[in-house]
Please model this.
Amino acid sequence: MLTPLAPPPTPPGTWTPARKAARLLLRPLEAFLHVQAASGLLLLLAAVVALAWANSPWHTTYETFWHTPLTVGVGRFVTTKPLHFFINDGLMVIFFFVVGLEIRREMAHGELSEPRRAALPAAAALGGMLVPAGIYLLLNAGSPAKSGWGVPMATDIAFAVGVLSLLGKRVPAALRVLLLALAIIDDIGAIIVIALFYSSQFNVYGLGIVAVGTLFVLLFQALGVRRPFLYVLPGLVIWVGFLVTGIHPTIAGVMLGLLTPVRPWFGQEGFVAVTERALEKVRNQAAEGHDAHALLEPLAEIAEARREAVAPVVRIEAVLNPWVAYGIMPLFALANAGVHIGGTDLSDPTALRLGLGVSLGLVLGKPLGVLLASFLAVRVGIASLPRGISWKNLSLVGGVAGIGFTMAIFIAGLAFPDNGKLAVAKLAVLVGTTVAAVVSLALGRFLLPATSIPGTAETVDEAEQSTDS
Model:
């Protein structure tokens, strides 16, 4: 049997000085991307750039740029839409697809898989949606801006986790897992609100198109089609169907996420068995002197085993998460967070009540709703506090839940076609999110012990792996 030789440290034809220089330049970026708060910081940076641009001497170019018309299509099927549409109604479908994958995974194997485990985050999320909406409606009942009640309901998980990560080892692992479960249920609530209350006039014919796309997805699954890119076409059909119905097309992403299989084909044992068999083929071929073409078959078997060792819902989420966190969400923030502050008239009573409703809903309504609903759920006996979590820990979760950037701005865009009200709503979201983040950081420093909790760092890492996989 041939003794395998270790491969050289660099690919053939590599110029070593250039490779070292590239690694030196990329190392800070790689380190940044591995920081928990990286996506939240990138979102913050995008929002700051958008605000600076929208309030600079060139502020008119902000709206002009994002409303640049783009034409796409083939043959007679051509449409012209502004760039803003392709971001909010197009790219954000991928964001909602990842949300759907997270929900599917959690319902199958995570915190939402057992009613008892899901009871506390479900109650906290429900309270965290109803109380902010109630505060908003209390301030805006009978107002032309009453349709914005859904804006302060949403939690931005990237910012929220980023704030918790800034508290370091003070944060118990169970607290972070609770926040993740709460945010996922919160997303479910936001999706339902968007579908039911923030969609245009309903067109029943679009449901037929949605049904056709869905049938193709189910047919592909029945035939054993496992390549994700083959589902893009039926996914586009579902997207067009929702667009025609008047339901916001990003719901297509959630629907596709919920239809994604949660069971692996090979699993860990199958992966080991197929890989060992393929490696044995490679050894035999090497001993018999076969050329490189003979490697293609066993390498294809190993590639398939690697792909099918984990469930599609886990694999696709892992591939798309970086694109969403470091690409789509910052781009959305850049295109939507730019508010020309000089153009917002807060002296108008309607605008003032709108802004107060959104900001107070996030800063006060979220923590109050989370705590009150959690207290009632525990008191009634349908839920219990996780081990190691106290009410003061839960108050921190409530504070962090008030960080409502991405989904809140998204709903604001649906609630207010009028640019004046939309600008006020966006500004209120930014103010409310900033206050909630600062207060939560201060609260965490005050309530949580400065010393690291035994086992916290390791458990946090395990929680991250379970939620990111």
